[in-house]
Amino acid sequence: MPYVSSRARILSVCSALVVALIAVAALAPLPITIAVPGLTANVLGSNNGQPVITIAGAKTRTTSGQLRMVTIAATEPNASLHLTDAIKAWFRTDEAVMPRSAVYPGGSVQQINRQNAAEMKQSQDAATAAALRYLHMSPSRVKVTLKLADVGGPSAGLMFTLGIIDSLHGNGKGGDLTGGRRIAGTGTITADGTVGAVGGVQLKEQAARRDGAAVFLVPQAECSDAKAITPAGLQVIPVTSLDGALAALSSLNSGSTVPSC
How confident is the model at residue 117 (pLDDT cuts 50, 70, 90)? Predict the structure, then answer.
């Protein structure tokens, strides 16, 4: 019978324990969510057969081009994800591993959906206020209705605002804000026109490019994330305010220098 040293036996036992621990870790569910590029929607067009923007009390105009809001999609809060799922996503550019608590901060799925709907409503109200304020129109005379099914959260604020302005005013010279282009973007907005960060920018860029956008408006605070992995053919323009976004679009349409991340 061959002799086995004490050290060899210890190493053998330790190796078995390590293998067992790795197996347990690989099979144990983790508190993570995997996000991917989500849907995009043209706020100047229709969604589920209904116009995204409806305006009463003021004359609207026919627009060309597109203003696309973008989203990310995430696994359900009760999805069972494991170490192997995280490792796979880690090495992909079209997937991101995120703490579940960052995407779903608590509560039931119904509560989360209600919260997302409330944030979307608040975003729409702020977008309407910012657009009418910019156009010097009274909200008591001009009524704006925004409808976008199956989308929640505040990140479409900037694009809603630009869509309202384009529908009512265009670029102020008889043309469109888009210049006929397919423009995508993300960012929250406040009633005074301040654009805020939203998160998930790299995945949103991919969604924008996938759906044909050549220009992407991004909150300036997220420039470093946006330029880390920029899809080929997508021009990324940083903005901090509604005025800045409108100025950038004007420069783009006139062929002037446009800000870049």
Answer: confident
